[in-house]
């Protein structure tokens, strides 16, 4: 046992299974309407990888379809690596769905391979993922065994060879064209391929094939790139005394924020989110999230944001310990401008928004968005600042009042119509009728400019005021 | 409160003509059909309507037809709308010259751009001498000044400024600007509506069309959508409020100046067909007489036939169709000279005149031809002659037409491709922003054949909420958009030929196919205007028959022709074979449904075949006419007629209506339809799927028949039959021509089977069966089939003498992936003694893919022993070097040869069949099919016995005639098995029913005469036993 390959065939579906137990599920390619993965319940209904979505749904009415999320799967794999890194050192990510471990170096620390394997299994025990594990003399041998579904952990080299010989070439890393070519020669397993004279193979196949075989059999050693844990700031602090008033928490937090500042400056990073977790004796820990939209490194600024958060916080019981973790890093690109202006810089828009969100909560801070519909009520909407879409600069603006009523009011004042009519219509699907309004620019006796409309029933309404 | 617009006071007596109106032939812009627009305009009291689709006149004939049919008090003006950067312009036709000019401008603009687009150039406008122009300024001073000057110069006295009032944003400002422009250029102003819809309720559909055109969901389009529904046909009272009176009056003045009507279009036949010293009538007569001597011997035809000829010629002369017959005569003479086999069919084809002109081979003595039945004075329909040519050589005939008449004078008719249910759901769904995966799911699961459940209900069953929200919108809009034209495509072979340039008659545009052009009208439009088209169609069976004739000539020394085989008279042995449904490969009567009818109908003469071909069609089946006909035919029911008039129509089909012509005649004699109404009924049948127009005839037909004393049941069935014909019309005239080919192919199959199968295989793709099925059928007829061999095969399949008997040697063309060029090269360079080493093939310079294809087909077996070693040799890169040019013997094989299973799968992948193994035989030998009965043994199983059968699924058919029933065809090593699956069975066992390639069926045997079915109970998917087998089933075609 020199290399161990852990293969997780269905990371995304396994995680979804936690959310939807007893539910037949499949991953489908949204473009080609073809299934990419199925869970056991779906397979039991006859649903298979490669089937069209239409056929699959006919076979299994309850089938729930999901789109593949490569970003999420990448994160899952990263988390698995973090987990296993606790017990094993030489670990390599094999995206999208596997981990490779150099066992030989770890075996010095464990009495025997079985004990080592137990430790690894323990780390994986509470994960929802299915996995296949295989060990081999070379990384590629371990990989081929695992991907062929051959659970092989403690084999003698000879037994390993025998097992490898039976592995289908379709599970190998050979180029797909070569696999097809070999199959058309009747060679579908590794054994018959290795039995052919290398010179004859060289006359017929590309270098890729020969290199793969050399690496697989250990004639050439290829080391993977090993995993390095991610840069992380995570500090815990046991308080010397219990704190009952939340603003008092700022004091012990100060040194932590200074450490954070140092840490971020060294790495030339900004942090967009801090996670502060407060520990209580009885009550379950309370996590708080503090965001800085543009990213922040400065301890003083973080302290200001934290003070706004903490000012409103009611502590359920005294805090005895806390944990401060930074997440969501971005590179610091504020190119250290303005060396001269040392003090009292005005707040940037992003900083202001962060402060407002910190003070008032995410739902309370919104911004208007133009959707450019003809219909005034649908023309603009509000969206949370956190989800602010990029503004489309190419929008065409029309002369519309800045101040519009969310719901038009009956017109009670006499007005003079200046221009119009502009007719706007929208279909009401429920009744199948067209809603119709004729809009006019009107002036009141006081000289104000109003936007008013008339319905086909000759009723007049006020829609908005021009400034 | 007062409005500020300077509109005229409302007036009761206001008159208006709409001169800018686009229909749904401005694809994805107009939201109403030409018919809807003219009907609404007439109802609103407009004096005239100009249909001005964008660079198109494709919709004008429909509008014209609607006005005539409904006798609307509305003048139709022909025009077209054009755009250039900075310019929007409408051109109108005051007279025939202007119309020719407009057609030329459209043709030039269309021919410059690829299909579906156009490119107008300034030159087009500068060259205009006759059209009237309506200018729609853009509102940008610089641009408008430029175009104002240019247009004023070239359209002097013919240019108007068109005012559009649609209550848009800042319209008053735009109108004031237009006033200034009109003043600056001294142009008269005229009111137009810029109409896109016939009524305001189409707004949502118009917005959806915009979303489809811009490929963006409607919710994201914002102000790119119409802001209101003013682009509709508006009441006069409203127009009077909106426009200055002078602008309205000007529209009427201009409309009055437009005097051109489509009725003026006269078709002029190419004159070069007739010798200068003869009239067309004389020349036709001369040709017919010469033909009659050839057809009926020097003594000429019998008096009765001569009388018929005279009558037909008189009718042709009266209706002035001589040139039409002469054009077709010219075409078939060309084909005859080139040795291209052809056959005419259609309403006018089965006349004695056509027989004498050699357009058809239907001998009038064999069939009681009543020419009037086909060409009718009172039904006012144009003559219809389609000519089928060998499918591989039709292009020669088309090229002949282009050469003879030039591209200016010959073009293909258009086919209007319309939104069908599924394309409508896809496009509207996308426009509404519905997830595409969900849409595909709906579309794939909609069962169009579902008799009982409507598509709306089906969508709802598939999980769409059709009561509210997007689902409701989808259902409403799909309902509206169905039948909307989407683009113009080329007709399968309908040529329009004219005396002068065609583009003065109708615009011509590019088709998708390179070097093809189509006119902007379809066959109905041509028919409406009385323009004739010549149908040049392709038929695979003619190719096969010609090939078979050649083989018979070459190997048996016998000269055959279609007319000669018919001349031998009805051959009882051939009919015996037909009655036993031994008709794989026989024209028209080879399908599963036809085969099951043959032993029941038992055709014994030519006319029986005519009926046989027509009876297995949706019309007679939906009208429930099959069973009564069979009962009467076998003497189990008396042949009676409700009246003498009906007897006259139905006597030749024992009182049961079978053919489309009979149904129309019945409508006349039994329901009192006039000739004109009957013609409308015929057209409605032809376009029933698109328009659903047939319903309007139901009441008239049934009431008419009841009032004349016919049974309600008979009337209802007749209506159902008419609906069935609407789905797939099949007239007797076509059946009569098809029956000739059916008989000829059956005759060849009976007397020259080896030549017949070879010819069929060489003419593939054609017909109902795959080469695999044809080869198996050949082997069941004790024919030897020899494999593809690099040294023994030619390109095509060949007839060879093998061990003292005729055998079929498969040709190298059967090898998938071998190009015809390579094939030629290979055969040219093949040494006299054949190749002896695969390296020789590589040295010919064949590419790797084609070499692999040869190895896969096992054509190299004689050199290397098996496929694996063939490929191994071909992969060797060293043998390409000149040093190895002299290699004599392949080295000893290094690889294990393929097993039986691999060899069989490879056969199927490379050739589509296997000569050595059948998958079912393979499975049976390995005990996987325990208890399964062979297809060949089913004949001995007793009725109602429980049986178990298994086979490759070669066909899944869900005919519209039998709601919910699927016919499966299973193939095992001994033959085909017919399986009937009821809907319940299918629903309960979806997986094997839909996806199995190899299927086991436990069921009950049903026997009706010689027809054996297995009614399916349990379905078991055996595909996993041979997973790699390629799929070869024709499913739900």
UniProtKB/TrEMBL annotation, chain A:
Q: Does the keyword DNA damage belong to this entry?
A: yes
What are the record keywords, sorted?
DNA damage
Give all residue intervals belonging to the UmuC domain: 20-146
For whether the record's keyword set contains DNA damage, the answer is: yes
- Mind telling me which InterPro entries this protein's record contains? DNA/RNA_pol_sf, SulA_CellDiv_inhibitor, UmuC
Listed under GO biological process in this entry are: DNA repair
Matching PANTHER family, A to Z? Answer: BLR3025 PROTEIN, BLR3025 PROTEIN-RELATED
Q: What is this protein called?
A: UmuC domain-containing protein
Native source species: Alishewanella aestuarii B11
UniProtKB/TrEMBL annotation, chain B:
The answer to whether the entry has keyword Metal-binding is no
| GO molecular function annotation | 3'-5' exonuclease activity; DNA-directed DNA polymerase activity; nucleic acid binding
What gene name is listed for this protein? dnaE2
Q: Which organism is it from?
A: Alishewanella aestuarii B11
Q: Which InterPro entries match?
A: DNA_pol3_alpha_NTPase_dom, DNA_pol3_finger, DnaE2, DnaE2/DnaE/PolC, DNAPol_HHH, NA-bd_OB_tRNA, PHP_dom, Pol/His_phosphatase_N
Enzyme Commission number(s) from the entry: 2.7.7.7
Keywords for this entry? Cytoplasm, DNA damage, DNA repair, DNA replication, DNA-directed DNA polymerase, Nucleotidyltransferase, Transferase
Kindly list the biological process annotations in GO that this record carries: DNA repair; DNA replication
Reactions catalysed, as given in the entry: DNA(n) + a 2'-deoxyribonucleoside 5'-triphosphate = DNA(n+1) + diphosphate
Cellular compartments annotated? Cytoplasm
Put simply, this protein is called Error-prone DNA polymerase
What the entry lists under HAMAP family is as follows: DNApol_error_prone (MF_01902)
């Amino acid at each position: 046992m020199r290399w161990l390959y852990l293969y997780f065939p269905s990371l995304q579906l396994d995680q979804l299974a936690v959310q939807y137990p007893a539910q037949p599920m499949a991953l489908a390619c949204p473009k080609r309407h073809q299934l990419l993965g199925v869970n056991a319940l779906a397979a039991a209904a006859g649903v298979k990888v490669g089937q069209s979505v239409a056929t699959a749904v006919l076979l299994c009415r309850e089938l729930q379809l999901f789109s593949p999320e490569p970003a999420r799967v990448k994160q899952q794999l990263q988390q698995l690596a973090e987990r296993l890194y606790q017990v094993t050192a030489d670990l390599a990510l094999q995206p999208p769905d596997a981990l490779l471990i150099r066992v030989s170096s770890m075996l010095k620390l464990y009495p025997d391979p079985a004990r080592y394997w137990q430790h690894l299994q323990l780390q994986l025990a509470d994960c929802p993922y299915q996995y296949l594990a295989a060990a081999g003399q070379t990384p590629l041998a371990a990989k081929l065994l695992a991907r062929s579904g051959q659970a092989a952990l403690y084999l003698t080299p000879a037994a390993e060879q025998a097992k490898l010989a039976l592995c289908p070439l379709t599970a190998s890393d050979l180029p797909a064209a070569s696999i097809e070519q070999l199959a058309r020669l009747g060679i579908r397993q590794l054994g018959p391929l290795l039995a052919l004279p290398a010179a004859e193979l060289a006359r017929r196949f590309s270098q890729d094939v020969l290199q793969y075989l050399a690496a697989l059999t250990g004639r050439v050693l290829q080391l993977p790139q090993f995993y390095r844990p991610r840069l992380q700031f995570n500090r815990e602090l046991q308080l010397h005394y219990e704190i009952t008033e939340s603003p008092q928490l700022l004091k012990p937090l100060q040194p932590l924020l200074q450490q954070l500042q140092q840490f971020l400056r060294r790495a030339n990073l900004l942090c967009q989110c801090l996670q502060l977790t407060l520990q209580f004796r009885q009550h379950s820990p309370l996590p708080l999230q503090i965001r800085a939209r543009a990213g922040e490194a400065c301890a003083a600024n973080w302290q200001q944001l934290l003070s706004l958060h903490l000012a409103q916080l009611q502590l359920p019981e005294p805090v005895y310990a806390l944990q401060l973790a930074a997440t969501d890093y971005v590179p610091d690109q504020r190119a250290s401008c303005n060396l001269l202006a040392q003090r009292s810089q005005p707040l940037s828009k992003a900083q202001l928004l962060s402060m407002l969100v910190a003070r008032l909560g995410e739902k309370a801070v919104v911004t208007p968005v133009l959707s450019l519909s003809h219909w005034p009520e649908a023309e603009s909407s509000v969206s949370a600042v956190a989800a602010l879409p990029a503004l489309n600069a190419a929008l065409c603006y029309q002369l519309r009042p800045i101040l519009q009523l969310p719901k038009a009011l009956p017109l009670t004042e006499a007005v003079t119509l200046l221009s119009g009519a502009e007719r706007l219509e929208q279909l009401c699907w429920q009744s199948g009728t067209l809603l119709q309004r004729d809009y006019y620019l009107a002036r009141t006796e006081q000289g104000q400019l109003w936007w008013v409309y008339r319905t086909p029933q000759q009723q007049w309404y006020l829609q908005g005021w021009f400034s | 409160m007062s409005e500020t617009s300077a509109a005229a006071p409302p007036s009761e007596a206001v008159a208006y003509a709409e001169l800018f109106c686009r229909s749904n032939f401005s694809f994805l812009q107009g939201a109403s059909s030409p018919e809807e627009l003219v009907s609404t305009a007439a109802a609103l009291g407009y004096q005239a309507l100009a249909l001005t689709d964008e660079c198109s006149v494709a919709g004008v004939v429909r509008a014209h037809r609607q006005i005539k049919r409904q006798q609307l008090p509305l003048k139709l003006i022909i025009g077209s709308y054009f755009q250039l950067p900075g310019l929007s312009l409408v051109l109108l036709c005051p007279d025939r010259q202007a119309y020719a000019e407009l057609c030329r401008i459209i043709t030039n603009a269309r021919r410059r751009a690829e299909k579906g687009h156009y490119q107008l150039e300034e030159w087009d406008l500068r060259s205009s001498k006759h059209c009237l122009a309506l200018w729609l300024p853009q509102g940008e001073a610089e641009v408008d000044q430029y175009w104002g000057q240019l247009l004023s110069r070239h359209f002097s006295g013919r240019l108007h400024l068109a005012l559009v009032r649609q209550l848009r944003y800042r319209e008053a400002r735009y109108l004031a600007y237009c006033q200034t422009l009109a003043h600056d250029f001294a142009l008269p102003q005229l009111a137009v509506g810029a109409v896109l819809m016939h009524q305001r309720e189409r707004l949502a559909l118009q917005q959806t069309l915009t979303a489809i055109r811009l490929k963006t969901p409607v919710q994201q389009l914002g102000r790119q959508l119409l802001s209101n529904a003013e682009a509709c046909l508006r009441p006069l009272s409203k127009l009077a409020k909106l426009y200055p009176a002078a602008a309205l009056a000007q529209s009427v003045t201009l409309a009055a100046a437009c005097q051109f009507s489509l009725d003026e279009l006269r078709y002029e036949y190419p004159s070069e067909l007739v010798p200068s010293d003869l009239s067309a009538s004389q020349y036709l007569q001369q040709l017919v007489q010469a033909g009659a001597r050839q057809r009926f011997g020097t003594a000429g035809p019998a008096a009765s036939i001569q009388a018929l000829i005279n009558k037909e010629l008189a009718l042709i002369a009266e209706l002035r169709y001589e040139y039409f017959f002469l054009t077709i005569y010219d075409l078939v003479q060309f084909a005859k000279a080139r040795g291209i086999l052809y056959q005419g069919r259609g309403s006018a084809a089965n006349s004695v005149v056509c027989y004498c002109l050699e357009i058809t081979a239907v001998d009038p003595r064999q069939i009681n031809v009543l020419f009037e039945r086909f060409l009718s004075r009172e039904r006012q329909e144009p003559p219809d002659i389609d000519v089928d040519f060998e499918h591989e050589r039709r292009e020669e005939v088309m090229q002949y037409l282009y050469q003879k008449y030039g591209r200016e004078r010959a073009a293909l008719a258009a086919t209007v491709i319309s939104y069908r249910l599924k394309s409508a759901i896809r496009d509207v769904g996308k426009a509404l922003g519905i997830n595409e995966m969900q849409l595909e799911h709906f579309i794939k699961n909609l069962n169009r054949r579902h008799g009982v459940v409507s598509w709306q209900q089906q969508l709802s069953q598939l999980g769409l909420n059709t009561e509210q929200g997007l689902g409701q919108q989808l259902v409403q809009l799909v309902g509206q958009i169905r039948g909307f034209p989407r683009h113009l495509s080329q007709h399968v072979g309908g040529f329009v030929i004219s005396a002068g340039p065609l583009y003065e008659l109708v615009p011509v545009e590019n088709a998708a196919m390179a070097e093809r052009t189509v006119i902007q009208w379809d066959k109905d439009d041509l028919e409406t205007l009385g323009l004739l088209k010549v149908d040049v169609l392709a038929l695979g069976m003619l190719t096969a028959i010609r090939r078979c004739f050649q083989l018979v000539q070459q190997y048996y020394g016998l000269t055959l022709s279609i007319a000669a085989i018919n001349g031998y008279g009805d051959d009882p042995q051939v009919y015996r074979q037909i009655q036993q449904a031994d008709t794989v490969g026989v024209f028209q009567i080879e399908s599963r449904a036809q085969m099951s009818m043959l032993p029941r109908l038992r055709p014994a003469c030519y006319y029986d075949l005519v009926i046989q071909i027509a009876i297995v069609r949706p019309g007679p089946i939906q009208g429930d006419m099959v069973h009564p006909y069979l009962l009467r035919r076998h003497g189990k029911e008396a042949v009676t007629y409700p009246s003498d008039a009906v007897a006259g129509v139905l006597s030749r089909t024992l009182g049961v209506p079978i053919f489309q012509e009979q149904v129309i005649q019945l409508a006349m004699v039994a329901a009192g339809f006039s000739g004109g109404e009957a013609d409308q009924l015929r057209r409605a049948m032809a376009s029933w799927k698109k328009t659903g127009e047939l319903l309007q005839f139901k009441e008239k037909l049934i009431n008419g028949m009841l009032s004349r004393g016919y049974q309600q049941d008979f009337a209802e069935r007749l209506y159902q039959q008419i609906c069935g014909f609407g789905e797939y019309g099949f007239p007797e005239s076509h059946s009569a021509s098809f029956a000739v080919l059916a008989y000829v192919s059956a005759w060849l199959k009976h007397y020259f089977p080896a030549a017949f199968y070879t010819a069929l295989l060489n003419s593939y793709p054609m017909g109902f069966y795959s080469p695999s099925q044809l080869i198996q059928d050949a082997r069941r007829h004790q024919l030897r089939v020899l494999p593809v061999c690099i040294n023994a095969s030619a390109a095509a399949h060949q007839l060879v003498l093998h061990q003292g008997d005729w055998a079929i040697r498969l040709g190298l063309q059967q090898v998938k992936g071998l190009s015809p060029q390579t094939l030629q090269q290979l055969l040219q360079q093949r040494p006299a003694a054949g190749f002896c080493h695969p390296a020789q093939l590589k040295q010919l310079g064949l590419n790797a893919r084609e070499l692999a294809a040869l190895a896969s087909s096992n054509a190299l077996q004689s050199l290397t022993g098996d496929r694996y070693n063939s490929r191994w040799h071909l992969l060797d890169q060293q043998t390409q070097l000149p040093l190895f040019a002299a290699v004599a013997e392949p080295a000893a094989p290094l690889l294990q040869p393929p097993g039986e299973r691999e060899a069989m799968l490879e056969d199927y992948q490379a050739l589509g069949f296997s000569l050595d193994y059948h998958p079912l035989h393979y499975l049976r030998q390995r005990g996987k099919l325990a208890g399964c009965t062979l297809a060949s043994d089913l004949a001995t199983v007793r009725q109602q016995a429980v049986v178990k059968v298994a086979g490759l699924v070669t066909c899944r058919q869900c005919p519209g005639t039998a709601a919910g029933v699927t016919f499966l065809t299973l193939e095992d090593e001994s033959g085909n098995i017919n399986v009937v699956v009821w809907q319940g069975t299918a629903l309960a066992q979806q997986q094997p029913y839909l996806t199995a390639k190899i299927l086991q069926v436990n069921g009950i045997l049903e026997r009706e005469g010689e027809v054996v079915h297995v009614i399916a109970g349990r379905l078991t998917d055996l595909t996993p036993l041979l997973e790699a087998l390629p799929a070869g089933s024709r499913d739900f075609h």
